[in-house]
Structure formats: C-alpha cells, structure tokens
Write a structure and sequence with these properties.
208 residues, alpha+beta, 2,3-Dihydroxybiphenyl 1,2-Dioxygenase, domain 1, 2 domains, five-stranded antiparallel sheet, 9 strands, 30% strand, elongated
Length: 208
C-alpha cells in the first residue's frame, strides 16, 4: 500500500505495508520551500545494497564528530571538529554544522549569512531521509530497508561448538555470531558457509 502524500513528503518512505499514517515534513515544509528544494533536479543517483542496521547509518549523520574522522582524506578538513547546533522539529532533526568559513559571519551583516556557504545545513526527515546542503548542490540519502526474507534456521548439534567453529573457519566459513552460552539452552554460534548460507552450531546444555 502506498499512501498519498505531497511532493516533498515523497522524500519519506514508501512501504509495502503501513501501520498508521506517514510522518509529514510538517514544520520543515517552509524551510524546504525557502531553500527551493522543489526547483532542484536529479543529477545523479547511486544505489547501494548493504547488509547493515540502517538505523546505525542514520545515527552516524546525527553525530557530527564522524566528519573529520570518517572523511579525513576528503571533505573533513573543510569542517571544524565536532562543532554543531541541533534542534528537533517535530519528529525531524535540523542540524547546522560548522565549516572553516563559519567565523566569517562575525564580520558580515545577518542578511549576508548563508547556511550553504558559511556552514552545512542538514535535515533529517523522519524516518529515513537525510538532506545535506552543500554550497552548490544538495545530497539526499534515503535508507530503504528491505526486511528479512522468509528463511529457515538450521541447527547442527555438535559436541564442541568452539572447536566446530574453528574447523568451519579453517574450511572457508565465516563466523556471524560468536559462540555464546544461552542459559537453559546450551552453547551456540552462527556460521556462514563460503556461499553465504547461514546455520547454527549448537551444543545442548546438560540435563539437570
């Protein structure tokens, strides 16, 4: 099901099944209009598929200290280290990140302050969109989780989980979940074979 939205709201998520209404840009709507977002056109689109917790990617953009470290060899030097101001706008977040040019505003009248020149404005539009306003273009990062497809969980009972994991890795498998003790169940670990198929190795707990 796709819910009817305004053009700007299409930056949000279109889900197969929705539980309740989508959040709107709401209080940010006037800012998006003032920036002229509706007049921009797509120049280039790049899609990547990653096995990851998509919420952690969102969190990285909400923590400004990552800029000088994660992007040290590219855009990092253009930013002041870990200096920003953030506020909540409904369920969204607005951030202003200090650049090397930010101190210039001290000598300028407010009418000449430009958030795309003297800083970097970022809008996080809940739940899955990040808008980054560069001096001459805008980046839109959209996270679209695909969910977990139908699958089977396969468990192999072994005498020694740790030894079995070591043997599997020797044969080309990769550990996905390190060996752990589950009270009342036993010791288990998840392993992926060289083709990517996942399975559990388990040694049941001794009977009481």
């Amino acid at each position: 099901m796709v819910q009817e939205t305004s053009d700007r709201d299409l930056l949000l998520v279109a889900a197969r099944q929705l539980r309740g209404p989508l959040p709107r840009a709401g209080a940010l709507d006037c800012e998006l209009e003032a920036i002229g977002l509706g007049n921009h056109r797509v120049y280039r689109q790049r899609a990547q598929r990653r096995v990851a917790n998509w919420k952690l990617i969102i969190d990285a953009f909400l923590e400004v200290y990552h800029v000088r470290r994660l992007h040290a060899g590219t855009i990092g030097p253009f930013f002041v280290d870990a200096v920003s101001v953030n506020d909540s706008v409904g369920c969204h977040v607005r951030s202003m990140i200090a650049r090397e040019t930010t101190p210039e505003i001290r000598g300028l009248p407010p009418q000449q302050w430009n958030p795309q020149v003297h800083a970097t404005l970022v809008h996080f539009i809940f739940p899955n969109s990040v808008l980054i306003y560069h001096p001459d273009y805008i980046s839109h990062l959209g996270m679209f989780p695909e969910g977990t497809p139908p699958h089977w969980n396969v468990y192999f009972n072994v005498e020694d989980v740790d030894a079995s994991v070591a043997k599997a890795e020797e044969l080309g498998a990769k550990s996905a979940v390190p060996a752990m003790d589950v009270p009342g169940v036993g010791r288990m670990a998840m392993v992926g074979d060289p083709q990517g198929a996942m399975f559990w190795l388990m040694a049941a707990a001794a009977a009481a």
